[in-house]
Amino acid sequence: MFDEIHEECGVFGAYRLPQASLITYYGLHTLQHRGQEASGIAVMDQGKISIQKGKGLTIDLFTKESLKKLKGETAVGHVRYSTAGGQENANIQPIVARGLKEQVAVVHNGQIVNEKELRVELEKEGCIFQGTSDSEIILHNIQKEKGSLYERVKKTAAKLVGAFSLIVMGEDELIAVRDQKGLRPLSFSKMEDGYVIASETCALDILGLYEHTEILPGEIVRFYKGIVSRERYALPSFQYMCAMEYIYFARPDSDIESINVHAFRKETGRLLAKNDWIEADLVVGVPDSSLSAAIGYAECAGIELEQGLVKNRFVTRTFIQPTQALRDRGVRMKLSPIKDVIEGKRVVMIDDSIVRGTTSRRIVRLLKEAGAKEVHVRIASPIITSPCFYGVDTSTKEELIGARMSEEQIKDYIEADSLKFMSVEELKEAAGHVGLCTACFDGAYCTPLFSYQEKLEN
Amino acid sequence: MFDEIHEECGVFGAYRLPQASLITYYGLHTLQHRGQEASGIAVMDQGKISIQKGKGLTIDLFTKESLKKLKGETAVGHVRYSTAGGQENANIQPIVARGLKEQVAVVHNGQIVNEKELRVELEKEGCIFQGTSDSEIILHNIQKEKGSLYERVKKTAAKLVGAFSLIVMGEDELIAVRDQKGLRPLSFSKMEDGYVIASETCALDILGLYEHTEILPGEIVRFYKGIVSRERYALPSFQYMCAMEYIYFARPDSDIESINVHAFRKETGRLLAKNDWIEADLVVGVPDSSLSAAIGYAECAGIELEQGLVKNRFVTRTFIQPTQALRDRGVRMKLSPIKDVIEGKRVVMIDDSIVRGTTSRRIVRLLKEAGAKEVHVRIASPIITSPCFYGVDTSTKEELIGARMSEEQIKDYIEADSLKFMSVEELKEAAGHVGLCTACFDGAYCTPLFSYQEKLEN
Amino acid sequence: MFDEIHEECGVFGAYRLPQASLITYYGLHTLQHRGQEASGIAVMDQGKISIQKGKGLTIDLFTKESLKKLKGETAVGHVRYSTAGGQENANIQPIVARGLKEQVAVVHNGQIVNEKELRVELEKEGCIFQGTSDSEIILHNIQKEKGSLYERVKKTAAKLVGAFSLIVMGEDELIAVRDQKGLRPLSFSKMEDGYVIASETCALDILGLYEHTEILPGEIVRFYKGIVSRERYALPSFQYMCAMEYIYFARPDSDIESINVHAFRKETGRLLAKNDWIEADLVVGVPDSSLSAAIGYAECAGIELEQGLVKNRFVTRTFIQPTQALRDRGVRMKLSPIKDVIEGKRVVMIDDSIVRGTTSRRIVRLLKEAGAKEVHVRIASPIITSPCFYGVDTSTKEELIGARMSEEQIKDYIEADSLKFMSVEELKEAAGHVGLCTACFDGAYCTPLFSYQEKLEN
Amino acid sequence: MFDEIHEECGVFGAYRLPQASLITYYGLHTLQHRGQEASGIAVMDQGKISIQKGKGLTIDLFTKESLKKLKGETAVGHVRYSTAGGQENANIQPIVARGLKEQVAVVHNGQIVNEKELRVELEKEGCIFQGTSDSEIILHNIQKEKGSLYERVKKTAAKLVGAFSLIVMGEDELIAVRDQKGLRPLSFSKMEDGYVIASETCALDILGLYEHTEILPGEIVRFYKGIVSRERYALPSFQYMCAMEYIYFARPDSDIESINVHAFRKETGRLLAKNDWIEADLVVGVPDSSLSAAIGYAECAGIELEQGLVKNRFVTRTFIQPTQALRDRGVRMKLSPIKDVIEGKRVVMIDDSIVRGTTSRRIVRLLKEAGAKEVHVRIASPIITSPCFYGVDTSTKEELIGARMSEEQIKDYIEADSLKFMSVEELKEAAGHVGLCTACFDGAYCTPLFSYQEKLEN
Q: Entry's SUPFAM superfamilies (chains A, B, C, D) (predicted)?
């Protein structure tokens, strides 16, 4: 399903570490798959924040020189998949408040569903917003509460409904928070005399830190005066980790709630094969994200795994799309079949999900064009039927093929010889002890939706 | 071995095609793995050449607007891995001669070994060179010969010794040439009323053109007045296709001399496993180029294939390398092990080649750090012992670990539990009917080396 | 004194004009002498604001395409001379508030002296500041007041102490305000069915609009529903137009309070000559700003005006300054004497002001080096002895040569044969009916200084 | 006439000077008025040339870092006004030949009229041209001759017909040449233990070097082994210094053939006034280039000199021109009248030349719009009737208003109340002992024109 779903963020924090900005740079680089549109790093030095942020990949935006200017031992960073709309620059994170007494920076992954309600309330009290992001709302609320920064963040977290993994930077202080349902991941590790915090454990691993502590749902963790203190700001709740983190977003080498992402995906492949016997010659995964599931499927089904599709590694956003006329002549850019592998074969094509169906249809056609005798599509997730309001860009209901068509109709639309999705139950089985949010599959939203309820009903 | 060996070019040509520059853009994008440093497109319109070239990826360099300005139905393009040295811009291709009578553009993949001899001769006759590339020498020689452009190119080709796949653009004319030994690939396909030529067939496939004609070693092919004519400019010779094209450079979906690159690599994996029984739990390929060989090895050895290493897709040249201090703390950026997969396992790690050995050692260490009980390294090519003078950047003999150490010593150096390379004979077996140049493995250069002989002997 | 004093802004507004963004572009271009560091334009279209702003000259920042994207018939623009300090981007204007009910943009020229007091108050009420500019404070205050946008702007203006010429943009509404003392200029003209507002009349003239209305000190003017309404928000006060606007900042073709700037400067030259008879051969003005005064001096003194100094038109901020070693060898870049004109002559050199004295000394030396027999410096303004807190960047008292030295000492420092400044009285005479703020000459600040008082006393 | 005529170059050389590249940077910056489109510097260090060149102003193109990379004690530099056409980059100077034995760089100011003839000859001998400039031809010819670099340059100079001031850089060697007619200026000065060479003396002055030696027409000067040797390569001829250098191109502080440019211009103004009595109130020069002539006119006529027009200093090429609709409404960008000065006055407007007449008409209209009662235009040069083939971009004959209209008709076209040009005789009088090329005024070309003859006759 590649390039059809987008998450909007990855966050990173470094506490009491020399070269905090450089470490954050490496962290953001490793989280880049969570957002390629914009990057930013803010550092705190003696109560003053320096910041650099802008559009582009972390490694394109920052240079040795620019990192040197970001002095300080405490830092927060952010990568972002930007949504459409004017003046996006005002939404790039970290977002900074420069008060007379103190300076504060915030990075945020997720989406607040009572955003409008909070915004109205804050505006009534006279807040002025320069951008349109919910991160600005969080920052304003933090500043409006009473008490120390830690107390204000805690009060703010208790008011927020939805998905959020936050890191707030004050003077010699980082505060990390996860929402009550645990929708978005957030972990930390000790590093020398300090700490690093990251959306995914892969960004800790690359620093040689294999011991991770996951921040709990509803927990607030304070890195202050050199030590860590942990506290719950909300009542315990059943966990609702976003299923899409496991299925698509996270890097295979990350662990989420102690379950390895690659292992999860392999297990979905295995479960797909278990109750679905089909005669075929090859299993082909759609690169890159479906490779793990394909390995699991091939192993369980006893069918040969093959590399039947090649992905162009150099595709970026600035790419000039082929016109329809060129497409009709067969021109395509991102994926190519290996004809030698595919020709004359019955292929099981494993993909991680189907959103609009257009990409799946294109790949099926590619395989047929390359001579596949049959193409059996197996999707390592259930049918997406409902939009997400917790930070995944699955846009509107109308664009979701699964909201309009049955499995059989989708099969016809994508021109496959057969099609199977996983059931929600199978998916939950793959997650073992981890509770999943499966709202996009079954509409079971784990929080009230406030003004988004209306959007859902239309 | 990824990022240790570089080839220097990919070439593309479009003849009598509306939107020739756009088609060339797609072609170069698909050949981008052959060179990421610079790109260029020249088009011919009524005897006049327009050109755009510069540093950067094809998709970053060209825009819809800039392609529109490259009007004309005949085009040549080039992607380049640039060598070090001043004023590189003068070496970016295509190179153009703007005479009073006619304008000519040349693109070139390969390396001429009698370059200096030709240069001296041309300078004696008064030629002035602005850059340092052998492509400029080829262009000058073409212009100095007598007769039509076609005759001049033919005479020039006969003088060149070494590796070259050339495309020359004149008015309503493309001329494609391959060296006598067939060291570098070059193919073409009919497209509508015109033709496209490319270094690799993957760049023809993506245009929906699955029927390819390989230009023969020692052949010159003229696309002129709408038709193709083929002729030999040199005596037939045994073929010496660069083995590295199969092993590392080419995209797995390309066919070279009718042998699919992925299939070749899978076969090398199979051959590695065939005579080498080892007890292990997992086969892990070093991404991306070793995946095919890993599939072949796993299949033949009956050991489970696993995705044990994850590569960061966003690494580019501008990347800030971790300092030694950070490296010592375990920081690394490009590859990460999946601990969950590796821990406690005996791993067969498949890589395509070893150049300096430092990368292999780093990966072995990564796997051990992630808990691998044993790491057995299998290399899907022979030991590299000699430099290449035919366009592969294997630099000097001193940097080649295989020129200084035995297999056993290399094993110790890279800290593997065991190490096996392929034999040159096994490699040739995988190539079937295709004759290979294996000079980098056995020093059997297929041409005289002229002034490079001296470099070899030191 | 060129390049020693900087003002910080020029503002422009366009109301109910098709191509409002293009007209604003021309307006800002004409106000560019008031600030070259950054430019910005915001337009209002059906309640939504689009904005483009960034570092650089207006003509470098905006393109035809980018202006087309700034759709709407109401616009505000700003040019800025940026002060030092981190994250300057947050201070570039226009500054926008994006509320749920309405969007508002503000541009501001001047400096508020009760800035800190307002900031503390606003922060107490929970405002969060992202930048460090007083413009953000103005915007926040506007949003915090009660009532319609117009009422809120009016209440805000009444709270502000210091120098400000503001334009506020709401939906189909522009509101222009000048401070009670009238320190910074602001005028408007009718254009077709709409209006344009500008810091200087030269930006109205270039649109072919020679009929200007100056906004009065303490006045608020509303452009709303197609008509203009004017009202006073503050009690009348004696006027204190910034003398530096006449002396240095404004373009010679601007009128300020109906007095032409060139005419004012010529008059200062005349007054300088009137009571100061000196035998000399030539009058030379330091280009560009002192030419008007030189004409006046030459005319009144009956001494020949000559072009003795040539200014390099291509100097910009990125210029590499000559090292001291090169300077000692006589290397200099911006001004050159015409030796042929100067040699053997007694020169009256007219400059508009002296700030640190280093530039004056350099020019005197240049003239002597070119053979001037005598150099008599005449300054078309009084000695600067006090810093400005109303928007002129005369930095700290220590840097002002006039705060440390007498006229005689300055004469010796700049190595002139004689030196004369104007008296404050003469300056006021040149301004005729217009009351001037002469605080930088005599310390007579026209408002309380709040926290700046302290800075003054140190 | 500003922005209607363009010259194409300025050249600079530094010999045996530490920081040669930095000195060249300052030199080029001072010659920037001769070409703003592109800049380049090449330095020689131990037989190897390093080069940086590109589009843009010298100060925008080079940084401290980039100049540091240009190591070496010998340098040549170039500023260029680029002509239209594809692949301009190949024409940016310096142009470098990188041979096996030696490397050579060339910079060139002027235009060769037997360019095509030389090109054909060189192409016959097999030379290949990458660009379209005559500088490349000169370089090729130098390399094709026999003997030492000095001998080859000398032989080449003897073959060239037209206007050229050349600097050629070899190893520890600079060779400077001026054409036989002396059409373009070129001077040098001793600086410490080395030398600097420049198109105009203003670029020597700014280094503190007021002692200049003008290279003679037909002379070749060699800076070699630390000393200077001078020789004639051509027979003496009457001098034909380009009149436009005095009238428009050169900076007023430059001396050409020992006559100061400002003094020349002032004299043209004086001569214009001498035989032309007219009753008027003001003399206004069109900035910047006509100020000198205006001073001369005012002085001689006894009419007050005024600054009636203000030029926007920030106009660059990227400027968005007002549409005709906006122009019709009076919008204009570059020049503004000072209404206060002009209104009700009879104005003598001094300009340096008229090319197409459109600019003059625009300025006359501006002055009338600002209330001028009468506008009497006086042009400090004769009517331009013929194109230039010696390096001045006066384009085609059709575009020259003087080729199509009489003085009376031009007067009507530009809507002036009266109009007077200088006679060619008066111009020559102003030049004193210096022989002028006045071909653009009287068609008396000082060399054969070769293939350009034809262009002239059409």
A: N-terminal nucleophile aminohydrolases (Ntn hydrolases) (SSF56235), PRTase-like (SSF53271)
